[in-house]
Structure formats: C-alpha cells, structure tokens
Amino acid sequence: MENLTLAMVVAAFAVFIFLAGGLWIGLAVGAAGMLLYIFFIDGGGFYPIAILQFNVLNSIIWTSMPLFIFMGIMIFKCGLGDKLYKFASASVGILPGGLLHTNIVSCAIFAACTGSSLACAATMGSIAIPELKKRGYDKRLVLGSLASAGTLGIMIPPSVSFIVYGAVVGESIGKLFIAGIFPGLMLVGLFMIYVAVASIISPEKTPGKERFNLKAFLVGFWQFMPVGLLIVMVLSAIYLGIATPTESAALGSVGAIILAAIYGKLTWENFSQSVIDTAVSTGMIFLCVIGCQIMGMALADLKIPATIAQFVAGIGLGKGSIFVGIVIMYLILGCFIDALSMVLLTLPVTYPLMMDLGFNSLWFGVLVTLLCEIGQVTPPVGMNLFVIQGISKEKLSDVVAGSYPFVILMIVGVALLYYFPQIATWLPAQMSR
After folding, report:
1. Phi and psi for 59 in degrees, rounded to 5?
2. pLDDT in tens, the chain (433 residues)
3. How far is CA 162 from CA 195, 301, 362, 405, in A?
4. Alpha-carbon distance 402 to 142, whole Å?
5. Dist CA 425 CA 23 (whole Å)
6. Is the Cβ–Cβ distance between 239 and 106 less than 8 Å?
7. Is 214 exposed, middle or buried (0-12, 13-18, 19+ CB in 10 A)?
8. In 3-state terms, what secondary structure has residue 380?
9. CA of 65: how far to CAs of 112, 132, 144, 179, 282, in Å?
10. Contact by Cβ (8 Å): 340, 288
11. CA distances from 4 to 12, 40, 73 (A)
C-alpha cells in the first residue's frame, strides 16, 4: 500500500512539474505515466507504451471524431450563425426575457451543428452581444446566458466528449449521443425558466418581449431548414439503427459540403482550411488521449483503481456519499483543467468505481459531460468565460457574475440526473427495441 501511495504522489508531482514547465497536457501526463513504468512496475519499459499507442488509435470508433469535427467546421463556415439567431429570435423572442431566450435556443441548435462549446459561445456571442447591448439588456444576464448556453456544445449530440468517453470505456457512441438529448433539453429548459423568472422579478433587466413577426419566422425557418434537416438525418440514422455513428458522421460531412454549396460558401479556401482545422483539432485530441491512456495503463498495472475501489468500499460510504464526493472532485478539477483532459485523467479511477457501485455507464457518461460543462464556466480556467469576455470587452468579473446563476442551475441538473437517471437512460433504451 505504501508503494502505491508513493507512486500516486510521484505521478501527481511529475504532472504538476511538467505542466509548470510548459509541456502540453498530453505530453505531461504521458511522461508521468512513463516514470511510473520505469520506477514502479517490474519489467517496465517502453515496449508496452509503443503497443498501447497503436491499440488505442487502431479502432474504427475514432473515425467518427474527425468527420464530426469537419462537419461542424464546414457548417460554421456557411455563416449559419446570423441566420440561426434571426430564426431563434422570431421563435422565442416573444417570451418573458425576450432575446435572452434567443441566446439559449440558438446556442442549443448550433451545438447540434458543431459539437463545440467554444464555437457556440464565440459565434452566438459575436452576433448577440452588440444587439443586446444596443437594446439595453442587463449586461451580466447577457454575458452569463451566452457563456453558459455555449457549454451545451459538448452535451447535445454530436459531441466529441461522448466520442472520447465511449472510445475509452467501450460504450456505444450512438447510445451516448442519444442519451445526451434529454439532458441537453433539460438544461435549455432550466436556463429559459431562470431567464423568464428573472425578467418578471426585475423587468428593468430586459427591455421587453419581442413582437411575433410571421414573415421573419417563415424566412428564418426557410433559411435554417437545410441545416435542420441535416441534423435530423444524422441523429435519426443513429437512433433508428440505419447507420453507425461513423457512417452518420460521413453522411453529415458530405451534407455539410452540400450545404456550403447551397449557401454559396463552398470555396477552395473554406474547404482546405476546414480540412486543416480538423487535422489540428484531431491531432491535439489524440495527443491527450495517448498521454492519458499511458497514465491510465500504468495506474491499472499498479492496480491503483482497484485499490481505491476496495478502500472506498471498506469505509462503508453509501452510493450517495460517494456520488457527492466524485461530483465535488470534478467541480474542483474543472476550475483548473480543460474538459477533455479532465475526462481522460479521471476515467481510469472513477469509471471502475462507479460501475462497481452499480451506476449505469451511459448515465455516467452524461454526468461527466455535464460536470465538464460546469468546468467551462468556472474560473480560473473556464474557457467559455474568456471567449465571451474577449468578444464583449467587458470585465471578466461581470462574465463570472452573470454565469454564476447558470452554474447553480447546472448543479441542479446534476441532482436531477442522480434522482431521475431515466433522463439519460430512457431514450437509449428505446433504441434497443
């Protein structure tokens, strides 16, 4: 036990030193895992690590990730943001809270197009912030709604976070995508309820509801319809079992190219830049995956996850107490580590523990993704906060203060998932039928 404790201390200290020295997180974690092999594992060496790199990436599961990333980037280059915002304004701007609802709904729809939280926040923020400032909306509500709704990009499918989780733990990516739909809609509902209540309690924060304009609604619907049909086709193919996630991703990529042609944005510059951006994003993710898998394999060979699970079981804590402890751990880590790295670093320990306690694998994937969402709007490393702050040129403290109520709502969402796991598990169960 003392040897295992020393190994954990060395690994944690090594990661900290490497990161402080400026190494990328994938390299830092991978190097720390190599140290564990050299000093703590009998017969340790670099041969198992070389085999691991091939085995990790030699899976067709990963093929869907660059395809979905390419699909999102191509749709982004179609200039969809402005069309989407006008359609959402005509649809939900009549509710109490006015265009603040548009922020939330447009981010949710854009999430289904791109699967990127940062892209959601950046695109919708650049469109909405100047307009809402001009109309006199409360600054903090505007900034907070955009930063928080932007996090829906990793919950509403297609989501890179679900692809990584599924590939690491061996869960069906198609079912993970479907499992994220109701939790994503739940968050949209919670956000919109808060905005409506806040506008009713403090009418001065919102200038008033928008008037319903049938012409604007029909024009917005017509402009958005091709993208909406593409999203429905991709998700329906997965849900109905017509196509695998990889096949659906290929369908979505071809559809995105066709959409770019329809919108007059299919140029060689846009296409080539989309391919380059996809390659860069995929390479960065794979670097993190390989580094964290090296660490995970070292921990598994040392039987650290099993030892932690036995220790926790020996303490006699109930499922609820362990659940709260893991949530608190993720909330703290989310303040300092990006979402993807947090998932890859923790799964070798948390996943076996939660499965031993009888939790559902799909449910846990949704829970971890929701906790990653919270991490994107909690300082000091909440990336969505910095994106919105950079676009708005406002103080970071205003963005944080505006996001705080939405963080509370996301924690409420965590509690709802615990007490009502069917929110995440019911829809995937219907796929089996």
Report:
1. -145, 135
2. 557 778 878 887 887 888 778 778 778 888 888 888 888 776 556 666 777 777 777 777 788 888 888 888 888 787 777 777 777 777 777 888 888 888 898 888 888 877 778 778 887 888 888 888 888 888 999 999 999 998 888 898 888 889 889 888 889 888 999 999 999 999 999 999 999 999 888 888 887 666 777 777 788 788 778 888 888 888 888 888 888 888 888 998 999 899 888 888 888 998 999 899 889 888 888 888 888 778 877 877 777 776 776 776 667 677 888 899 889 988 888 887 777 778 887 888 888 888 888 899 999 999 999 999 998 898 877 888 888 988 888 888 899 999 999 999 999 999 999 999 999 999 998 876 6
3. 28, 26, 10, 26
4. 8
5. 39
6. no
7. exposed
8. coil
9. 14, 35, 29, 18, 8
10. yes
11. 12, 9, 44
Domain boundaries, the chain: 1-45, 61-432
How deeply is 10 buried, as exposed, middle or buried, from its count of CB atoms within 10 A (0-12, 13-18, 19+)?
A: middle
By residue count, the chain amounts to 433
Give the separation between CA 382 and CA 377, rounded to whole angstroms: 5
Please state, in angstroms and rounded to a whole number, the distance separating the CA atoms of residues 128 and 105. Answer: 12
Structure tokens at 65: 């990730």
